[in-house]
């Protein structure tokens, strides 16, 4: 009797969305890394909120040796490095208060589209850092990590990106045509309806 072959998929991972729109790579004048001061300001402003959330909501385990953090939508840096440092400092502080002992080692997973400029990203990775770093390519609209493998997940200025642009937005004959803009800024109800439907 011939052995049967199990054809059950190993992981339940959806396919990548049709479109992927990573930030402009490189480090020239038009790159994301040279034009993301506003986003950095938001990360600075969120530091206090992260500290409070970690203190109030994060359940710590006394016996773990490695604390896993993921940043979804890391782009090309350098803002993600500041965000990860803020998270690590908050977790370290809670470990010291809660257990009066040395905290675990930290492993940070930086996630973005497969088309993200990970070369620039890893070249700009701080030499002096309190964590191990790994890149995890793939859309966060799919599974990119095993179940229960993270202790902390972070996303700043990435969750609002849709998996694809609504078709009506790009159709010049549609009431929802967004006149070539890449974002919504006005009060056109048809544009809002198209984005809301896609969301």
Automatic annotation (TrEMBL):
Pfam families: Methyltransf_7 (PF03492)
Pathway assigned to this chain's UniProt record: Alkaloid biosynthesis
Any GO BP annotation: methylation
SUPFAM superfamilies associated with the record: S-adenosyl-L-methionine-dependent methyltransferases
GO MF terms, alphabetically ordered: metal ion binding; methyltransferase activity
Composition bias, Basic and acidic residues: 12-27
UniProt-annotated stretches for the region Disordered: 1-31
Gene3D superfamilies: Methyltransferase, alpha-helical capping domain, Vaccinia Virus protein VP39
Needed co-factor(s): Mg(2+)
UniProt keyword list: Magnesium, Metal-binding, Methyltransferase, Transferase
Highest rank taxon of the organism: Eukaryota
Family of this protein: Belongs to the methyltransferase superfamily. Type-7 methyltransferase family.
PANTHER family: S-ADENOSYL-L-METHIONINE:CARBOXYL METHYLTRANSFERASE FAMILY PROTEIN (PTHR31009)
Protein name: S-adenosylmethionine-dependent methyltransferase
Lineage of source species: Eukaryota, Viridiplantae, Streptophyta, Embryophyta, Tracheophyta
